[in-house]
Hints:
- The chain is mainly beta and 89 residues long.
- It has a single domain, classed as Immunoglobulin-like (Sandwich).
- Helices cover 0% and strands 55% of the residues.
- The N and C termini lie far apart (27 Å).
Amino acid sequence: MAALDPNRYPLMWMNGESDRVALYALRDITAADTLDVIQQFTVIKRAVIMGTTVAAAVGASIAGTTVTIPAGANRDGAYLLVYGVAGVA
Length: 89
């Protein structure tokens, strides 16, 4: 479990001025790792991890602007799709 450095989840695509959708590339993630997307969001409403070893798509736990990687991930690469309220970016 670790708070990931932003270079391990680069922003790949983003759209929206009030509500927002963003896609991040996840690198070397493990269950219970956390990442903070406060640069793009003020509040996250939904977060989905796609393409880990154990699941094609699975919901991730969210709290404010922090996403927690779900159980089963073990040094995986994947994508994170986030929907929420736009932040300052």
